[in-house]
Each structure stands twice: as C-alpha cells, then as structure tokens.
Amino acid sequence: xxxxxxxxxxxxxxxxxxxxxxxxxxxxxxxxxxxxxxxxxxxxxxxxxxxxxxxxxxxxxxxxxxxxxxxxxxxxxxxxxxxxxxxxxxxxxxxxxxxxxxxxxxxxxxxxxxxxxxxxxxxxxxxxxxxxxxxxxxxxxxxxxxxxxxxxxxxxxxxxxxxxxxxxxxxxxxxxxxxxx
Length: 181
Hints:
Elements: E1 2-4, E2 9-11, E3 19-21, H1 22-29, H2 33-41, E4 48-53, E5 59-66, H3 67-81, H4 86-98, H5 103-110, H6 114-126, H7 136-146, H8 152-178
Antiparallel strand pairs: 1-2, 3-5, 4-5
C-alpha cells in the first residue's frame, strides 16, 4: 500500500495486474518514455510507488502506473492519432534495445514486422546503441559462469574485477604460505 500525497488516502498498489511498472506501462500503452513523462507532467497519470520483488532477490521500490488511467490515455491517443507514428515506434524500439531486448521480442511487443524490427535494430546499432548493452540471456549465462549476480555492464565489470582481485589475493597467500622453494 502507498499513501497518495495529493488525496491523503491509502492506495493499494499490490495488485500487479492493475498497477504496472514503467516498462509494463510502456508496453501496455504502446508509447515511448517521453510520452509517458509528458502525460505525467500534464497530470494525466498519477504514478505511485510500490514494493516489488527485485530480479536479484529481495524487494525494491518501483514506480507504478494505474492500468485504468493508461487505458483511457491509450484510447485517446489512438483516436487522436489514428495510429502510432513511425518516430514513436522507433523510440520505443530503441528503448527496448537499450534494455537488451532482442529484435524478435520487439516484433511481439510493438507489433511491427520482423523486417522493420531488424531495420530498427541495425539503425540503433549504427548509432552506437550496442556499445554497452548486455542481453538478459547473456547476463544470466555470465552470472552462472561467474557465480555472482550483477546489474548491467558496469556490474559485470565490477564482478569480474572483484573475482580477479580475490583470485590474486589467494595466489599471493598460497605463495606466501609455501615459502621459498
């Protein structure tokens, strides 16, 4: 449950079918992050904070949006725009690629053709989009190999650095313990 500062009442945000995370909201509304931010700024959305399980264990606070509010805005957007602009689709695809989502999944989430998803992926890559992205599949595999969990490329670098540091200390301790040969 979360207290809404505007109305000073308790709002139950535990219903994960109704209260969607930012990523889920973007998928549901079929819009880009900037559109969601604009709706929020115009007070068309009233985001709340909810406690949800972290993918790495434990709990974390996340921003959630009411699916009912998103439905109303989605309907207004589809009536006023007829269809989502190519720029909106490209922006949402780039956001998904930044999150490590594969082109195949972009097809299903954004309802674009595989050719369009592939072309968007290639444009994203040509603009430097693949510089620091780690897919969720690759991350899971690396976490299994390394035996530690991490978040993103920076977390991977930190985990490898720590493993190497610990291994170096172990080698030094073994060498010191065995003494001169």
